[in-house]
Prior knowledge:
By secondary structure, the protein is of the alpha+beta class. It is 41% helix and 11% strand. Strands 1-2 form a two-stranded antiparallel ribbon. It is globular.
Amino acid sequence: SGDANAFICACLEQGYEARDTTDELMDHFDVTVSMLMTPSCGLITETEEALGKLAIRFQGRADGWGFLSN
Length: 70
């Protein structure tokens, strides 16, 4: 979707990592956004709010957060 791709570009411009994680069973687009951080309640909340507002600009929504590890 154009909105998903535009959202990915906007995330990248703001220093986040973002990739399309949609699979063939989904009826919508899914984008995973990440950033390297030392987590704190304040920083997680601030980041989640910023990404939620950004997603709305591209007809999307934030559906929560989690931890990625290698």
